[in-house]
């Protein structure tokens, strides 16, 4: 029997239903950290790709990650298909910059395509952890062998901005000084971006941020970065 603790806010998702089908024993509670747990040393935060992107733009992500890092084995499950990144008109490079930052903070990042896959991951993780605990074993890998980094929203924001075409470190800092947040910059009018970056570069950046992707199952996903990505002059 695999025991899984589920935060009450996750009851509306399909993950608990699939966990029950797998044979897990579900305990619903108000968890202090994460959405799921299979041990006092394990916390699992679940985010759909849409929510993950929104949490980056709105600045919620690293507050949640700070809490997650308080347990010895923190996991972040990102659920959904990568086509959602394109549908949200979010920078592909910015998406991966955030993932890299999470791993540097010592978070185990797992990708699943659906709620069913998320349930399978949680179930198998729970079985492995709980069987090890019964035998009195300590998992060989508790966390990446790296020094904890302090939360640095500013550094993450710089990484996201420099993933856009024509924006280097200096210009990224100027953008944050002027707009104050990623959300204000991503929602800015084209003329405001052009006023800061110049007409051509501003137009290119605005195009990447607001490009409408029309994807079909038969077509290869387009690259966001067909543009010249050189730093500002």
CATH architecture of the largest domain: 3-Layer(aba) Sandwich
Number of helical segments with 4 or more residues: 11
Strand order of the largest sheet: 2-1-3-4-5-6
State the major sheet: 6 strands, mixed
Span from first to last CA?
A: 62 Å
> Remind me, CATH topology of the largest domain?
Rossmann fold
Portion of residues in beta strands equals 5-15%
Reading the helices and strands in chain order gives EHEEEHHEHHEHHHHHH
CATH class of the largest domain: Alpha Beta
**How many domain modules?**
2
Global Rg? 20 Å
Flag low-confidence runs.
Answer: 138-149, 219-233
Residue share in helix:
40-55%
Structural category is alpha/beta
What does this structure look like?
There is one protein chain. With 233 residues, the protein is α/β, with parallel strands linked by helices. The chain folds into 2 domains: 132 residues, Rossmann fold (3-Layer(aba) Sandwich), CATH 3.40.50.10130; 47 residues, no CATH class. Helix content is 47%, strand content 14%. The chain has 11 helices and 6 strands. Strands 2-1-3-4-5-6 form a 6-stranded mixed β-sheet, with helices on both faces. The longest helix is centred in the middle third of the chain and has 20 residues. The C terminus is likely disordered.
Summarize the structure.
The protein is an alpha/beta fold. It has helices at residues 15-22, 49-58, 61-68, 83-87, 92-104, 115-134, 153-162, 169-179, 182-186, 190-197, 199-210, and strands at 3-7, 25-29, 36-39, 42-48, 73-79, 108-112. A 6-stranded mixed sheet has the order 2-1-3-4-5-6, with helices on both faces.
């Amino acid at each position: 029997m695999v025991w899984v603790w589920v935060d009450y806010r996750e009851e509306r998702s399909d993950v608990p239903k699939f966990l029950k089908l797998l044979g897990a024993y579900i305990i619903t509670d108000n968890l202090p950290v994460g959405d799921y747990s299979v041990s006092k040393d394990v916390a699992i935060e679940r985010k759909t790709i849409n929510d993950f992107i929104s949490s980056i733009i709105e600045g919620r992500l690293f507050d949640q990650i700070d809490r997650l890092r308080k347990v010895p084995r923190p996991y972040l499950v990102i659920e959904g298909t990568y086509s959602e990144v394109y549908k949200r008109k979010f920078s592909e490079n910015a998406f991966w910059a955030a993932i890299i930052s999470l791993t540097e903070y010592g978070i185990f990042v797992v990708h699943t395509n659906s709620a069913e896959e998320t349930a399978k991951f949680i179930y198998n993780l729970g079985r492995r952890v709980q069987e090890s605990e019964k035998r009195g074993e300590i998992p060989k890998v508790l966390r990446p062998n790296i020094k904890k980094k302090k939360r640095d929203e500013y550094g993450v924001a710089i990484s996201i901005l420099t993933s856009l075409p024509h924006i280097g470190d200096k210009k990224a800092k100027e953008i944050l000084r002027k707009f104050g947040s990623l959300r204000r910059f991503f929602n800015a009018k084209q003329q405001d971006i052009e006023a800061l970056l110049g007409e051509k570069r501003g137009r290119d950046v605005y195009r990447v941020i607001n490009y409408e992707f029309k994807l079909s199952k038969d077509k290869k996903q387009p690259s966001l970065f067909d543009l010249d990505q050189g730093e500002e002059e």
